[in-house]
Amino acid sequence: MFRLLRPRRAALVGVLGMALLGAACSSNDSGSSASQTPPAAPPTSASSMASAPFGAACSAVPASGAGSLEALAQDPVATAASNTPDLSTLVTAVKKADLVDTLNSAQGITVFAPINNAFSALPKATLDKALGDPDGLLTTVLTYHVVEGQLSPDQLAGSHKTLQGGTLEVNGSGEDFKVNGNSAVVCGNIKTANATVYLIDQVLLPQS
Length: 208
Description:
alpha+beta; FAS1 domain; 2 domains; 7-stranded mixed beta sheet; 7 strands; 44% helix; globular
């Protein structure tokens, strides 16, 4: 009798084993199916945020064409500025001071670029005096807006020596910066072929 029961017992064990194996496979299949669900998009990294332009005035930058961020990144800084409508007064001043080639050929600079309203806010006598002295006062003022090295937003705060020879002071963090205490960055971290540009809402005047 023992010999007769052993095959039946073995068959029963085999059936139970197959059932358990099938259940395990079914469980694994469902788990595999769940794991194939596309994961949620990762949050924007700090590095990508740090490399992006910031500021309310950036909304005025065209999405495509000569003045777009993609196009500006291909041109040297003076050429890029000439394709930015809100920098037309600055471009006029740069041309008058004969600084186009100087800025375009410079390697690795940061430019604090006053927008048109910044020049409009200057007393007319001050602006006329600067424009009337392109090789002296105008060049002095313009080169005071240029710093060696391409400053990223996390390097912006602090004291920076300008090409004019003076020093400007940047305070703030994140997306809120002021230069020399008064001039706010309205669109920052714009890349050109040879410079990083920060648009500011006041003209910087070096201490005499």
